[in-house]
Specification:
It contains nine helices and no strands. It is mainly α. 25% of the residues are buried.
């Protein structure tokens, strides 16, 4: 399913509910429509089923985690980040609608690479990262190279911390 169709799906769900979806309800609705269970999404995200349940029930999510949800679920990164930022502002008593401009494929690729470097993704999630990068027209060899580099950097840091 393309990002465009999924954005239309979100709008449709909001129309059915009569109000905008919260980040958690958006995650739940998209997860269910994609046929994923909470444990399956948790495994893809590298978190517990309980964490997914807490997010779906309203646990606040940082924008970087919102981006990770978007990548893992195959949806628009700006859409997820926008929702997370709007909710963060709302919790602070600032009811603003946030509109992020679309980002280019190369910017989205750089964002994913930054998330890899930040440690937001675990080694077990390599296939998801490679798949996301391929969707952004990164060659398979380049995507695997980026992931290998990340894994090697993380292993080196772990070994030096143990020593």
């Amino acid at each position: 399913m393309s990002i465009k169709r999924k954005t239309k799906a979100r709008k449709f769900l909001e129309e059915l509910r009569g109000h905008p979806l919260s980040f958690g309800k958006m995650i739940e609705s998209l997860r269910v429509s994609d046929g994923l269970t909470q444990p399956e999404l948790g495994k893809r995200m590298g978190v517990s089923r309980q964490f997914i349940n807490n997010v779906e029930k309203g646990k606040p999510v940082r924008p970087v985690l919102a981006a990770k949800f978007a990548i893992v679920m195959g949806y628009s990164i700006p859409m997820f980040i926008t929702k997370a930022i709007e909710e963060e502002l709302s919790r602070e008593g600032i009811p603003l609608d946030v509109k992020l401009h679309s980002i280019s494929t190369s910017d989205e690729r750089e964002l994913i690479t930054s998330l890899i470097r930040s440690g937001e993704f675990e080694k077990a999630q390599q296939d998801i990262i490679v798949e996301a990068l391929i969707k952004l027209k990164t060659s398979i060899s380049e995507a695997k190279k980026l992931v290998r580099k990340y894994v090697n950097e993380k292993s080196s840091m772990h070994e030096s911390a143990v020593a």
